[in-house]
Design a protein that fits this description.
Largest sheet of chain A: 8 strands, mixed
Number of domains of chain B: 1
Strand content of chain B: 15-25%
Number of helices of chain B: 9
CATH topology of chain B: Rossmann fold
Oligomer: heterodimer
Number of strands of chain B: 12
Strand content of chain A: 15-25%
CATH architecture of the largest domain in chain A: 3-Layer(aba) Sandwich
Strand order of the largest sheet of chain B: 6-7-8-3-9-10-12-11
Helix content of chain A: 25-40%
Structural class of chain A: alpha/beta
Number of helices of chain A: 12
Chain lengths: 332, 317
């Protein structure tokens, strides 16, 4: 039995209009580990997280060779069985806390409902636990907050409430989809720090979905870079940032302005063009039209998976030393 | 040299709660902001939501009347100037290219609208629109499309073309890349830098993203609850922030460098509320180094280490 808490193999998601949002991806999250799924809008990262929880909108078709949680196959579970897992052993937090909290109920009653539904017991006991967790996520005067409605809280407080609510049933896996995108930078740092603390304390496994490479670098143990429904590169964070090997990862990192790194007036690296539309029967590398290194082989057929280092994989026709080769050619 | 744009002690007070029985409340969204930008300069304004940076942009653009102070372009006051006159001097690029473009008009119509409003004839208009589209990297064929048929980055190019078609002196960019993916953001930032250089534009660049501001601006103002708490040359500000809020803001920037972890910004869990500004220094409830005097006295802007700072402890930090 492997140490992975969540294992996804060969996941595919298609929509009724022929769009292939996720095209055969595999990933795993170990206990106590943060796995970041990073990519730009439309790459399939959010669809992947929803597919794992079986929360896809009607009309989406999910197939997978396997989705295992604690070694148990959950791809075939009924809605009723999945409902028992969601909010219990697997919890989720979303980008915009205002749309995921019910505006008509107090914070306390929403938090208590999760607990009573999964664990039973009295509402009073559940409220006690809710107050305890609100304190744990750094909310002062938790008793007062329990009686408040979501609109009475600031964005940062709402996201703390969402996190506390996700923790109500001691989850083993937390799926966080862009949890800080709607927040200010100082609040973002506070919320991410809180997630890290909770992970150490509770041994949480976190699947973190984000578009922000800064967050990935600071939070992730392991990273999967998604592009047009495929994981094009994956590996331990230090490896991946130290030696980005897929031309997309390489280009993406060059696009990020870093204070003090690029002189003012120098252009940032950028990736020309836009993401192609992927319909049925698409073949070849989806990045080829934007890739500076594209070659005829990229036009059709499967893209080979290669190793760039220990546990560091990427999907490309280029050998792992292409950047070094390019630099040598430029120097010569 | 006359600055391209000068903002003198500008303020904006909104009246809130005009219910029949409740006393009106006043929100001072912009409170005595001053700065000037030399011709061809790029001035950055950073701050978090609710700090008044977008209100300031709207005041500069004349979309809200200011309740106090003056805004001058090339030494001429904007207040009282006719809209059509003002439009030739100053133009906006907004954050969301999905809602700032009319969905029922073609790209060429959208870009040509400012020209039409100035009474430019059709032949001249078509020529200038096509020039401008080419300048921002769009084809004439794309000029015939609707905004919905373009990607986010292309739409932001349309917004930039519309802003530049009158050849304004000043472009106010309010979070121009916040809705875009990072690879597209880089394209747009490079385009803005190029246009600024080639056309001699003066930019007022508003953003919450410090890394972007650091890359593109010469001088930066940090806003907190309506006031500029620190204003400095970009390099000085980033190398040696003097205001505790600037320090916290810089500490929160997450650069893609693994192993550094998430910084402790040390701001506590209270959040600023523009409708309820604390007495004294408005940052004191969150300030890690606040002293008793900070709770009652608002330090006026003063020069410390070659910059302007509103903090009485700036030297000792």
């Amino acid at each position: 039995m492997s140490a992975a808490l969540l294992e996804v193999e060969g996941l595919r998601v298609g929509f009724g209009n022929g769009t292939q949002a996720v095209r055969g991806i595999s990933l795993s999250v170990a206990r106590g580990e943060t796995h970041c799924l990073v990519g730009e809008s439309g790459c399939g990262k959010s669809v992947t997280s929803l597919a794992v929880m079986n929360l896809l909108a009607r009309g989406a078709v999910r197939t997978a060779e396997g989705i295992r949680f604690e070694g148990r196959e959950i791809a075939g579970l009924s809605e009723r069985e999945m409902g028992k897992l969601r909010g219990d052993a697997m919890a989720m937090i979303f980008q915009e806390p205002m749309t995921s909290l019910n505006p008509a109920y107090t914070v306390g009653s929403q938090m208590a409902e999760v607990y009573v539904r999964h664990r039973g017991g009295s509402k009073a006991a559940a409220l006690d636990r809710a107050a305890h967790l609100l304190g744990r996520v750094g909310i002062t005067a938790p008793g007062m907050r329990l009686a408040q409605y979501p609109h009475q809280l600031s964005g940062g407080l709402r996201q703390r409430v969402m996190i506390a609510m996700a923790l109500m049933c001691d989850p083993k896996l937390l799926i966080a989809d862009e949890p800080t995108t709607a927040l200010d930078v100082t609040v973002q740092a506070q919320i991410l720090r809180l997630l890290q603390e909770l992970q150490h304390e509770l041994g949480l496994a976190i699947l973190l979905i984000t578009h922000d490479l800064g967050i990935v670098a600071r939070m992730a143990h392991r990273v999967s870079v998604m592009y047009a429904g495929r994981v094009v590169e994956s590996g331990p964070a230090a490896e991946l940032f130290g030696r980005p090997t897929h031309p997309y990862t390489h280009g993406l990192l060059a696009c990020v302005p870093v204070p003090g790194k690029i002189a003012r007036g120098e252009p940032l690296g950028s990736i020309p063009g836009t993401v192609p539309k992927i319909g049925p029967g698409y073949s070849g590398c989806a990045f080829r039209e934007r890739c500076s290194q594209a070659m005829p082989a990229c036009g059709a057929g499967d893209v080979p998976g290669r190793e760039a280092g220990p546990e560091h994989r990427y999907e490309c026709h280029l050998g792992a030393d292409w950047t070094a080769r390019l630099a040598a050619e430029a120097a010569a | 040299m006359t600055p391209a744009i000068e903002v003198r002690n500008v303020e904006k007070v909104f009246r809130q709660g005009t219910g029949m029985f409740s006393a009106p409340r006043f929100v001072r969204a912009v409170d005595g902001v001053s700065f000037s930008v030399p011709p061809g300069g790029c001035f950055g304004i950073v701050g978090e939501s609710g700090c008044g940076k977008s209100t300031l942009a709207r005041l500069i653009l004349g979309l809200h009347p200011a309740t106090g102070g003056d805004i001058l372009v090339d030494g001429r006051k904007l207040s009282g100037m006719h809209r059509r006159e003002r439009a030739k001097l100053i133009q906006p690029v907004f954050q969301d290219p999905f809602s700032s473009l009319n969905p029922r008009r073609t790209v060429a119509d959208i870009v040509g609208m400012p020209l039409a409003a100035q009474g430019v004839g059709e032949a001249e208009r078509t020529k200038r629109v096509n020039e401008m589209l080419a300048r921002v990297g769009l084809t004439a064929e794309q000029g015939g499309r609707l905004p919905a048929q373009l990607s986010g980055g292309q739409r932001q190019r349309v917004a930039i073309a519309r802003a530049l078609v009158l050849r304004p002196r000043i472009v106010v960019c309010d979070e121009p890349t916040s809705a875009l993916d990072v690879s597209v953001q880089a394209q747009i930032l490079n385009l803005l830098a190029e246009l600024r250089r080639d056309l001699g534009l003066t930019l007022v660049f508003i953003s919450h993203n410090l890394a972007v501001v650091e890359h593109i601006c010469d001088e930066v103002a940090v806003m907190y609850l309506g006031r500029v708490v620190e204003r400095a040359e970009t390099d000085d500000l980033f190398r040696r922030p003097a205001h505790p809020y600037t320090r916290a803001l810089l500490a929160s920037v997450l650069t893609p460098e693994p192993g550094l972890g998430i910084p402790d910004v040390g701001l506590g869990d209270s959040y600023p509320d523009p409708a309820n500004v604390p007495p004294g220094c408005r940052f004191h409830p969150r300030c890690p180094v606040a002293q008793d005097s900070c709770r009652s006295v608002q330090q006026a802007a003063r020069a410390v280490h070659g910059r302007s700072v509103e903090c009485m402890l700036a030297e000792s930090l």
